[in-house]
## 1
Amino acid sequence: MNIRPFTEEDVEIAVPIWNLLNPDWPTSVPEVLDDYRKRDPKYLLQSYVAELDGQLVGVGESDLSVASYHPQKFHLTLYVHPDFHGQGIGKALYEKVLESLKPHNPISARVQVRESSERALRFFGERGFVETKRDWVSVLDVASCDLTPYEGLESTLTSEDLTFTTLGELQTKDLEAFRKFVPRAEPATPISYEFFLDNIINAPDFDGRMFLVALDGEDYIGFTGMYPFGDTKALDQWLTGVKRDYRKRNIALALKIQAIRFAKENSYISIRTDKRGAANLSLLKEF
């Protein structure tokens, strides 16, 4: 077995392995390449692959969170093709990743593990990881969703000043549309407009039609945004938010209805409210 640094050329092989193991959280080669090429060196990413007879069979990496940045708190990702489980590949990748962290004096490492994955839970449990958080996913079947009870809702909300549109439409009329749209009013880690533009708006999976915006005159007061899951016809519900002074007026509901309507009209099969599979456990190891 050979373990070496991950290269851009490995993406074509690594993505299908990831999608095989995570069918409800797939990605795509363009998405991974885009993230790989735009990565800010500040957010340290150390990736390795395991090869058997020249074949890439597993990936292990550590990175730093953009949303909650701390230079000594890492997130680990480890996956091995199921045909090669039980051969010590995951263990070797894990040890290589931990070794690469030592010069950075790590405080902790976090992994995401499915509740249904007994192998992964046992693997990380034996290495000192403990559960600190549990996420659940809600999935909407688009075809069976009946919007009849909500017919006319938007018309009761819209007025000369209060309107609904999409970010795709706004960008053709307002040069400051993207700057006004940065969604984190009080982020755990502030991000720059340039970062938002480069990594969110200019990402290969961004579609301005899927970012629905509520306006009061020229003020942006609410939005909901979606992304497709890789090359599938499933959508990830990214964020929904309404300014405090406009809450409890069904604005978020109206945005959600428009999002579902868009999904129906464009033959999407589902919308999910979380990027990870149901009963996804966050495990933490402190050093």
## 2
Amino acid sequence: MSFAPTFEEHEGRRVLRLDFRQLGHEELLAAFVRAGEVIRAAPPDSLRILTLLGSRFNEQSAEAFKAYALANKPHVHASAVIGTAFWNVVVSSLKLRGRSDVTVFESEPAALDWLASR
């Protein structure tokens, strides 16, 4: 499966959709790099991001995600994440490290509505 960041509109707001589900370990690490390039090309505090996490994980992929998320913080206005229980714990740990813009959701419609309200 391949990774491709895409932009979509929801209630008049532009949202960057990052679907990291169904990626193998190496694909997942490469996807974090590619997504980071797209995010860092945007102006500061400009992006609303929907992140879908469901790929298999290990300590290396969790640490890579945390590094990716922390490096991209200046460009993110709001970030909604939908993931497995493990990924939700990883995302929650980001809040402790200064990523107060990240919120975990159980459904994509709720996440998109929240992003549009920001």
## 3
Amino acid sequence: MNPEQKLHPDTVMTHEEVHRLLLRRIRAWRDEDIDAIMADYADDIVHVSPYGSRVGVAAMRAANTRYLDEFTGFEVALNRLVVEGDQGALEWTWTETRRADGLRRSADDAIVFVLRDGKIAYWREYFDPAARAP
């Protein structure tokens, strides 16, 4: 993350507001609504996962569009949420179906995030890539 990026928000969201944001994101994925998925990202979002890093909404839109082209049937169970100021962590179980062959797969995912002005500025995922392997 660029050290000059403003991480700390002008306002801090409550635990309940963050919970609602995450439920909205879960619905957006379930509905396969790319615009709703993108709505919660800051313009300079930094996303890190075992598969690599993406910076900015254009890179995230491209990655999420490719993902939606490949997978469907999203179910996400939010198991834990911790929020402190402008940052937090969550655990959820992500389930999806690969369109090409109907393979259904699930992975437990832990995420550390930073919010800025109600948007996701940083999102780092920790999961076992083998759980998502073909």
## 4
Amino acid sequence: MDYLQSIDEQLFLFLNSSYASWLDPLMVWISGTLTWIPLYLLLLYYIIKTRRITVWITLLCLVLLIVLTDQGSGFFKAWVERPRPCYDVSTAPLARLLTGCGGQYGFFSAHAANTFGLATFVFLLFRKKLFFLGLLFFWAFLVSYSRIYVGKHFPGDVLAGGIFGIFAGWVVYKAEVWFQDLYAWITMLRLRSVFARNYA
């Protein structure tokens, strides 16, 4: 474990120190939470437009996904208690911080979990309708990498967050499919009941 942590620290220092001054403001912008509100609104609009009657099921699952990835990150941070690069004794003197340090613990990255979770969920929902949705994973990668660039997370934090997000996105997608099928089944039973009463 110490060996892997050492590799993670060295990789962080390499990536965090590989920068260009013109790239700094762009990476800070990419790393920002509010930056991607237009994208979220666009995805929300498309979900509402395409799901129509059962959109409430998809939206509830979307809320579940966000809670799962965000709170999952918080749980692991409190459990693992791995310091962020700016609090780690080995990397703090050398870490390059662009947006401050943040909370003390960084394993795993909520940004990585949230973005990869959302990318996975939306991709699985609409992969047969929108072929370019694979670009969402590039977006998730870019946001996750920016967290290393600005000095907030070790690569291991980002990798673990991404894996957790992909898994959470897949699980919630399966739940969404199950709820959609359940709703369709209940609706069919109701229609049969109404038909039976009216035409018996």
